[in-house]
Amino acid sequence: MNLKIQSIQIDADDPFRNDLLSRKAEIENLSALICNVNSPAVLAIDSAWGTGKTTFIKMWENSLKKQGIKSLYFNAWATDFSDD
User: Fold this and answer.
1) What is the spatial distance between Cα 47 and Cα 58, in angstroms, rounded to a whole number?
2) Could you tell me if 26 and 52 are in contact, meaning their C-beta atoms sit under 8 angstroms apart?
3) Which residues of 7-38 are buried (b: 16+ CB within 10 A; e: fewer)?
4) 63: left (phi over 0), alpha (psi -120 to 50) or beta
5) pLDDT in tens, the chain (84 residues)
6) How far apart are CA 66 and CA 76, in angstroms?
7) Measured CA distances, 16 to 50, 62, 78 (Å)
8) pTM of the model
């Protein structure tokens, strides 16, 4: 028995193909926002554990790449070696 939920497959050609939560509008709005900011800014994606933040970011990353916009994905949890 497999109790771990499998990650949603994100297609590079169509990042929203398997998106059952209709994230496309939010990603398009955030993309427009970050493309029009002229000064330093911080954007936080905050939600409870297991609510789809990583999937959202991966979809957004692929959407930006498809538009030719450079992006960088950095997983702070994967590089956190602290015990607390």
Assistant:
1) 15
2) no
3) ebebeeeebbeebeeebeeebeebbeeeeeee
4) alpha
5) 666 777 788 888 899 998 888 999 999 999 999 999 999 988 888 999 888 898 999 999 999 999 999 888 888 778 777 776
6) 24
7) 19, 9, 25
8) 0.81
Chain position carrying tokens 């497999």: 2
Tokens of 55: 């999937």
Burial class (CB in 10 A: 0-12, 13-18, 19+), 40: exposed
Strand ranges, E, within the chain: none
d(CA 42, CA 63): 20
Residue 41 amino acid letter: A
